[in-house]
Design a protein that fits this description.
It is a single chain. The chain has 376 residues and is of the alpha/beta class. Helix content is 41%, strand content 15%. The strands form 3 sheets. Strands 2-8-7-6-5-3-4 form a 7-stranded mixed beta sheet, sandwiched between helices. Strands 9-10-12 form a 3-stranded antiparallel beta sheet. Strands 1-11 form a two-stranded parallel sheet. Helix 1 packs antiparallel against helix 7, helix 3 packs parallel to helix 4 and helix 8 packs parallel to helix 13. The radius of gyration is 21 Å and the shape is globular. The relative contact order is 0.17. The protein binds pyridoxal-5'-phosphate.
Length: 376
C-alpha cells in the first residue's frame, strides 16, 4: 500500500515508537503517584512537555495534555465562551473549519452564544475585510485554523489574531496541520495541536495557553494538568508526542525541502488537474485536486492499494460532499470530482510516481467509459 493521506494521520516516527515502549512495558508508574515509580513516569511527561514547548517556540505559556486536538479545542472554545462577560456573546470562526471547531461553536448557540461562520474566497482564504466587519466589541472569541486539513491553505492567522485583540476578544488557533511545518501565530491566546499529525501516537494532543489565562475545566476529577484537564496521563503517549515534536523541530528544513521536491513532482504528475484552494498560500504536503467527469469516491475504490481520500477523514464516511469545497464555491459535481493527496517525510518520489500513474490511469478510464456511455 502507498500511504498518501498525511492530513488524516501521519506514520509514527520510529524514534517516537522506541521512546514509548519502555514506558508501556517497564516504567508503568502512575505519573501522579508520589513514589519513585510515579516520579519517574512524571519526569518523562515533563520532558515531553518541554520538548513540545521548545518545538512550538512561543512566548511564555503552558501546555496542557489532552486526548487529542478535538478535546483541546472543546476545552478552549467552551472555556473562553464561559469566561466572557455577558455582553460578549459572539464567537467568530471560518466556514471551512474542522468539525471539532465548527460543531463546538454551533453547539454553543443553545446556550445563548451567537456563532458567526465567515465565508472564504474562491482560493479558500478568509477575506480580512469581512472578518474585520464581523469581529466587533460583542465578540468573545475568534477561532481559525492555521493550515486547512482538506485543502492545505494557510490562513492569515496573525491578522485575524490582531483583529480579535483590537476588539477585545481572545484568539484561538487550530494549528493541528501547521505545527512543525508553518510558524505558529505568536500572539495567539491559545493553540491546539495533535501528536498523530506530526508522526506521534494517536490519542494525545495538547492545548497551549498563554501565561495569565485560565479556563474553567470541561472534565472534572483528580485535578491533573493544573486542574484544567483531569484524568491520568499516559506517559508513553506524552513521551511519543515529545519525541515526535522534537523531530519536527530538528528535521524542519529537511522535511520542508523533501515536501517541496514532492510537490513539484506532483504538479507534473497531475498535470491537467485543477488544484482546489490557493497555490501560493498553501502547505505543499497537501494536493487537493479535481478533474471534470471524475467521481472521486469511485477513484478511491478503483485504486485500492493507495491510501488517499476525498477530504477530511471524519467526513469521508458520510457520503456528503465536503463543506470546505462547498465553502470555496465549488459545485456538487466539482466537489465530488475532487480527491486529497497528502504526503510528507516518509513518502518517496517513487511511491508518489507509482500512485500518480495508477490514479491518472483510473481517472482516464472513468472519463473514457463516461464518453462511451454518452456516445452510445
Ligand atoms: C485541522 C484539524 N483540527 C482538529 C483535528 C482533530 O484532531 P484529533 O484527531 O487530535 O482530535 C484534526 C484532525 O483531523 C484536524 O485536521
Amino acid at each position: 500500500m502507498i500511504y498518501l493521506d498525511y492530513q488524516a494521520t501521519t506514520p509514527l516516527a520510529p524514534e517516537a515508537f522506541e521512546a514509548m515502549v519502555p514506558l508501556l512495558r517497564d516504567h508503568y508508574g502512575n505519573p501522579h503517584s508520589t513514589h519513585r515509580a510515579g516520579r519517574q513516569a512524571a519526569a518523562q511527561v515533563e520532558l515531553a512537555r518541554d520538548r513540545i514547548l521548545s518545538a512550538m517556540a512561543l512566548p511564555e505559556g503552558r501546555l496542557i495534555f489532552t486526548s487529542g486536538a478535538t478535546e483541546a479545542l472543546n476545552i478552549a472554545i467552551t472555556g473562553f465562551a464561559r469566561n466572557a462577560p455577558a455582553d460578549r456573546r459572539r464567537i467568530v470562526t471560518l466556514a471551512t473549519e474542522h468539525a471539532a471547531v465548527r460543531d463546538t461553536v454551533l453547539a454553543l448557540e443553545a446556550d445563548g452564544y451567537e456563532p458567526v461562520l465567515l465565508p472564504v474566497q474562491r482560493d479558500g482564504l478568509v477575506d480580512l475585510d469581512i472578518a474585520r466587519a464581523a469581529i466587533n466589541p460583542e465578540t468573545a472569541l475568534v477561532i481559525a485554523m492555521l493550515v486547512n486539513n482538506e485543502i492545505g491553505v494557510i490562513q492569515p492567522v496573525d491578522a485575524l489574531c490582531d483583529l480579535a485583540h483590537a476588539a477585545g476578544a481572545v484568539f484561538l488557533c487550530d494549528a493541528v496541520q501547521g505545527f512543525g511545518r508553518v510558524p505558529l501565530p505568536e500572539n495567539a491566546d491559545a493553540i491546539a495541536i495533535s501528536a498523530h499529525k506530526v508522526h506521534g501516537p494517536k490519542g494525545v494532543g495538547a492545548l497551549w495557553l498563554r501565561d495569565g489565562l485560565t479556563l474553567p475545566p470541561l472534565i472534572h476529577g483528580g485535578g491533573q494538568e493544573g486542574g484544567l484537564r483531569s484524568g491520568t496521563l499516559s506517559p508513553a503517549l506524552c513521551a511519543g508526542f515529545g519525541v515526535a515534536a522534537d523531530l519536527m523541530r530538528q528535521n524542519r528544513e529537511a522535511d520542508v525541502a523533501h515536501v517541496e521536491k514532492l510537490w513539484k513532482a506532483a504538479l507534473d504528475l497531475f498535470h491537467g488537474w485543477t488544484i482546489n484552494g490557493s497555490t501560493d498560500n498553501r502547505y505543499h504536503g497537501n494536493l487537493n485536486i479535481r478533474r471534470d467527469g471524475i467521481d472521486g469516491a469511485r477513484l478511491l475504490s478503483d485504486c485500492r492499494n493507495i491510501a488517499f481520500s476525498l477530504g477530511s477523514a471524519c467526513a469521508s464516511g458520510s457520503g456528503r460532499p465536503s463543506h470546505v469545497l462547498h465553502g470555496l464555491g465549488l459545485s456538487d459535481k466539482e466537489a465530488r470530482g475532487s480527491v486529497r493527496i497528502g504526503f510528507g517525510r516518509y513518502t518517496s518520489a517513487a511511491e508518489l510516481e507509482d500512485a500518480a500513474r495508477a490514479i491518472t490511469q483510473a481517472a482516464a478510464h472513468q472519463t473514457t467509459v463516461a464518453q462511451g456511455a454518452h456516445g452510445s
